[in-house]
Write a structure and sequence with these properties.
- With 317 residues, the chain is of the alpha/beta class.
- The chain has 11 helices and 12 strands.
- The two termini are 32 Å apart.
């Protein structure tokens, strides 16, 4: 169990539920409380963790029950607890709703339970979570682009900024509180991972947030931040996109390019302290797909093996 998993009051009846250091699977969530109703931003990676979060919110939701649940994107650490919100309307972008069908909890349960090197690899990343018995409740309302949701007399603006981290990322902006819940468009203290891309879309999402009237930023992983945290993620992604483009133009293999860029990142003070730095291998694969539509990235098991290799968990083959 993480050392610091608790509900934080942000002011203006907005709350953030933060999980430890925000590493693999330890995601954040949020609660916006209105008059007699609340909106929950994301559930967590398994049912036990989600129930603990809901219990921590019980004093708030007794008078303002959760009427709406937003899934910011399709990764399981932001939606696998949905079934515990039986009465809530579940909102997500159309792309997110489609993508939520692609990696069921049973798949992660099987990978965590696999024998040999595959099981050891996935337990290294996800062994702290229990994927057994999860039946993901799907969105009941979908949208494209933008959607305003009324929550007990308050307006929350849902803005689709994907494809970026995934194919349908959404941020939730609460104008009257100058607060934004970013989902995995922000990793604070950890390396962003670009599953869908292109990286330029994610940079544009950061630029959008930098132009908004916000004081408080709740990332998908890591501690609370402000616009400085947004700028750091933007700069990392812009740097990787340019560095990958240079190496692609020079004919360098994506895996070799990732290791080369990792060394350059390590020498840059603004990025050198980011955890999960092995994610650069996935980020370069995604960049190469945007440069060349015929480029085929390795399968997901190989992608996780490469990340683990870069971080010293497994030896090179």
């Amino acid at each position: 169990m993480p050392r610091d998993t608790r509900l934080h009051e942000l002011g203006d009846a907005c709350f953030a539920y933060l999980q430890s250091d925000g590493s693999w699977g330890w995601s954040n969530a949020g609660l916006v409380v209105g008059d007699g109703a609340s909106l929950l931003v994301d559930t967590l990676f398994d049912l036990k963790l989600t129930q603990q979060m809901l219990d921590s919110m019980a004093a708030l939701t007794a008078a303002a029950p959760i009427a709406t649940l937003l899934n910011t994107h399709a990764n399981g650490d932001h939606c696998y607890g949905n079934q515990l919100l039986e009465a809530a309307e579940i909102v997500a972008s159309e792309a997110t709703a489609h993508e939520m069908t692609e990696v069921p909890p049973s798949m992660l349960h099987a990978l965590n339970s696999a024998p040999g090197e595959v099981g050891a690899l996935f337990r290294h990343f996800f062994g702290a979570f229990d994927f057994d018995g999860i039946d993901v409740r799907m969105p009941t309302r979908t949208f494209r682009g933008r959607l305003e949701v009324e929550v007990g007399g308050r307006v929350v603006e849902l803005i689709e900024v994907g494809p970026a981290h995934t194919r349908g990322d959404t941020i939730a902006y609460v104008p009257d509180a100058k607060t934004v819940y970013t989902g995995d468009i922000l990793f604070v203290g950890g390396t962003p991972i670009v599953w869908a891309g292109p990286l330029s879309n994610w940079v544009a999402a950061c630029d959008l947030m930098l132009g908004m009237d916000i004081d408080t930023v709740v990332p998908g992983h890591g501690p609370l931040t402000d616009k400085a945290g947004i700028a750091t993620v933007r700069d990392y992604l812009a740097f990787v996109d340019e560095a990958a483009a240079q190496r692609h133009a020079a004919g360098l293999d994506a895996w070799d390019a990732a290791r080369d860029i990792a060394r350059e990142i390590g020498a840059r003070e603004q990025f050198s302290g980011l955890s999960e730095f092995g994610r650069i291998s996935v980020n370069v694969d995604t960049a190469y797909r945007s440069f060349d539509p015929t480029y085929v990235a390795p399968n997901v098991i190989e992608q996780f093996r490469r990340m683990a290799e870069m971080e010293g968990f497994v030896a090179a083959p």
